[in-house]
Amino acid sequence: MPLVVRPANADDLARAEELVARSINDLTVRHGFGPIATSRPADFQAFCLRDDPRGVWLAEDDGEIAGFALSWVCGWLWYLAELFVAPGRQGQGIGNELLERTMQHASQAGATEKSLITFAFNVVSQGLYVRHGLFPRVPIHLCSAERESLRQAHGPRFARRPSGQLPSISRCCGGSTWRPWVFR
Fold first, then answer.
1. Which of 128, 139, 138, 136 is nearest to 99 (CA)?
2. pTM higher than 0.70 for the full model?
3. Percent of the chain with pLDDT over 70
4. Which of 55, 64, 148, 173 allows an S-S link to 71, with CB 3.0 to 4.6 Å?
């Protein structure tokens, strides 16, 4: 059966939130941070669906959720709260299709400001957003350095640690795991 992108309904939200947690954990594990997300009740998603269902989309293939997008509008502000594609389905245009649907939501609602939040190290998603005209208003800094040069400059905090004893993602990112994107 071919991929179907359709408006989500209340019965889809719990499974969609499982996909969100699975996708976040796949990303953070690939970047060396380990799993950080758990499924939560879909209270905000249910609110958004009741408030304006035009911003809640699901990509499905043979009954399996391949992607999920959730945007919400409040006055002039459009907020992309969630855009996630199943790890095995990434790179197939699903995120692009879902983002287009949510951006139509922004246009239909008359939103003039657009915003979202993403991990600073999620460069694939950042590329998708830029291709859709969503540019960060604040700089995003990605940097890397050899552990030894950091240890020499900043002390034992950067000494080698046994596997499983790495600092948490929030400490690695200066106390913040998320970087805001706000667009015009």
1. 128
2. yes
3. 75
4. 55
